[in-house]
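Readers outside the structure-tokenisation community will struggle with the description of the input data as it stands. For illustration, here is how one protein appears when written out as sequence plus structure tokens:
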Amino acid sequence: MKKILFLYLVLVNIAFGYSYDDLLLKAQASIFPKIVTLDKKIDEKLIDGKIVYTIIYDETDYITASSIKKFINDNFQGHLDTYEYEINLVNFSNFSEQTETSAIYVLNLRDHIEKIAAIAIKKGIVSFSYDINNLNKGLMFSLVIEKSTVIYLKKENLYTSKIDFVDALLQMVKFVEKDYAYKNDKMPQNSFRYNFNSFNQKNIYASHNIFNAIE
């Protein structure tokens, strides 16, 4: 029965799931969990002493969400810096203000982004988006790969007393101050670009250490 269910999920994902860029998923999975630890108020958001990183998906993206969870666990081996962590997979329909989480990563949902973002803002937790265009809907961070890697931060989301990032992170990101549609705009010339050893794709898989220099 389990094999049949798994096969069904695979077929559903192939037929209806969003088409994700594997390298981008892995880059985000390498970097986003580390950013969570750069919030100086992260201790206030621990759940039973752990960072809880929640991946929000819809039913067609369950396999993608599971793959991201495995990739993070393989890379970080249970710790983000000095913190233990756990990863929860939550269907968007089950995510609410009662969901216990320290940060969220949202896959490319068709709907409900604004609602999810509003909950994250109210809870005072960091939110990440696979798709940069969803920053327009209230999520905080995204990441884009072109010739190099650019981390984007929705500036208005910083105006909260519940999140306080280290200064070094704020010097590294590119702030989004307008509704930004990456597909229709050119990459801004003054964007911050984080270079992974001249963008050697093999190094992206070990890139969870790139923020180690930030105290």
Q: What stands out?
A: The CA atoms of residues 39 and 165 lie 4 Å apart.
